[in-house]
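Forum: Protein Structure Q&A
Topic: Joint prediction for protein chains with partners

I've read a bunch of threads here and the consensus seems to be that you should model interacting components together rather than docking separate models afterwards. I'd like to see that in practice. Below is the full input, 198 residues plus whatever partners are listed. Could one of the regulars post the assembled result?
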Amino acid sequence: MKFHLSHLQAMLLFALLVSVAFGFLSRRRPLDRAKYIAWSLLLFLLFGIGIGWAMYPFSR
Amino acid sequence: MTDETQIASAPPRDNQRDGRAIALGVAGWLVPGLGHALQKMWGRALAFFLTVGVLVFLGAGMRGNLFTSGSGDAFAALGYLADLGTGSFYWLAKYIEVGGPDVSHAYGDYGTRFLAAAGVLNLLAALHAYEAARGRKA
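Posted by a regular:
Agreed with the consensus. Here's the joint model:
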């Protein structure tokens, strides 16, 4: 079994799974969980893409 | 007199609860989500089982590095501890990853992170199950 995921796919999956786990760990009510998961996912993606762009000048 | 009797009988009850909490924490570590399932926290149990399971499945499928005990250097030892955090899923990852790790490609490197993240998340979940059983969190 092999998965050949791109950088973006891997980051999206990682961010989603970890955000869901964090949401269920730290919040009890479903609405609070959903908000936490959405917020955590957004921050993961923003920081991931931001750091990616910050490294771009040094990549070549 | 009554107070003394109550004080004398308190420690065994706490010990029993502590023992149960430790057992639930270990159960949660061995099988992701089991510590919560045994406390009837079905949503959390399912969420931890699925998130840790999918991370392990993807990480092994991406041919991430599954560290072993005899790796030698300190970083490999830390990686081994993180991987061991997945409990029984460590052997599931070994079973899936028949071709061995391949970190010469980016996806293999990502797979290593997926496996380590699964282990650390499962340790957090097991600690949460332990704390919930002690009545500190719910």
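The interface with chain A takes residues 43-44, 47-48, 51-52, 54-55, 58, 60-63, 96, 99, 106-107, 110-111, 113-114, 117, 121, 124-125, 128, 138 of chain B (CB under 8 Å).
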